[in-house]
Amino acid sequence: MGKVSLIIAIDFDGTCVEHDYPAVGLDVEGAVDTLRALHKAGHRLILYTMRSGAKLDAALRWFKERKIELWAVNENPEQREWTDSPKVFAQYYIDDSALGCPIIFIDGVRRPVVNWAKIREILEYNRVL
Q1: What angle do CA 15, 57, 59 make, to 5 degrees?
Q2: What are the backbone angles phi and psi of residue 103, rounded to the nearest 5°?
Q3: Entry pTM
Q4: What's the chain's average pLDDT?
Q5: The dihedral sign for the CA sequence 25, 15, 6, 98
Q6: SS3 letters across the chain
Q7: Half-sphere exposure in the Cβ direction for 111 (13 Å, CA)
Q8: Which residues pair with 72 in a beta bridge?
Q9: Are 108 and 22 in contact (CB under 8 A)?
Q10: Residue 33 lies in a domain
Q11: Quick check: 100 pLDDT over 60?
Q12: Which one, out of 62, 92, 103, 104, has a CA that is 20 to 30 A from the CA of 122?
């Protein structure tokens, strides 16, 4: 039996890039490769961020420039079939502010960011990748 396609909600600041809001920070090591691998494995990625307007456009450019395909932004297009809840449904949420999300501290950066090496280990252990 093949792998099941999952819906994965991804935060942006502190997760894909270092914290530098309202600017777009530097790429967090491992984020691009892991996100590309998730998409290649058939999983659907939702950008789940507080950014809006021009700041959201900058985040969307980041994904486009790195050739990471998003399935949706701040919504799950299928969930309206079964709920009116505004909370985005996903099987996984990757967010530097999520309790239990593995994080690392980078010299010179004020706030920690997602540890994508650990995220990848978890995804591989759970046979997502």
Answers
A1: 15
A2: -125, 160
A3: 0.93
A4: 95
A5: negative
A6: CCCCCCEEEECCECCCECCCCCCCCCECCCHHHHHHHHHHCCCEEEECCCCCHHHHHHHHHHHHHCCCCCCEECCCCCHHHCCCCCCCCCCEEECCCCCCCCEECCCCCCCCEECHHHHHHHHHHCCCC
A7: 13
A8: 46
A9: no
A10: yes
A11: yes
A12: 62
Residue type, 66: R
Domain assignment present for 2: no
To the nearest 10 degrees (0 to 180), the angle between helices 31-40 and 116-125 is 30
Length of the chain equals 129
Looking up tokens 């892991």 gives 34
Domain range enclosing 100: 7-125
pLDDT above 70: residue 1: no
Q: Are 5 and 74 in contact (CB under 8 A)?
A: no
The Cα 35–Cα 11 span in angstroms is: 12
CATH of the domain at 65: 3.40.50.1000
